[in-house]
Amino acid sequence: MIIVITAFTFPKPITREEARSIFLSTAPKYRGVQGLFRKHYYLSEDGVTVGGIYLWNSRLEAEAMYTASWRSFVREKYGTDAAVTYLECPVVVDNVAQQILTDEQESTVPAAQ
Asked: Are 70 and 77 in contact, with CB atoms under 8 Å apart?
């Protein structure tokens, strides 16, 4: 599994409400994307930086998202370029599903009781 962190820096801060509105306007674009397990939107405390934290099945599937077209969309939507960071993610603890996921297993490891 791969985690990708994207970050966009604004010239001036935005509010939580403004960020929420922006995020809701783009969220449908990520539904049903091949290989994307989850996306979390974030807003920094100072309101200047926004972005996403994504959990992908593979780097190949993640890279299929962050194309020149995606970067152009970001530039037009936010007026800034995106920083994209890839991180290996060998284990995930999911307390909602009560599972521990690993990238080297077909099945999940049961969570401790």
From this structure: no
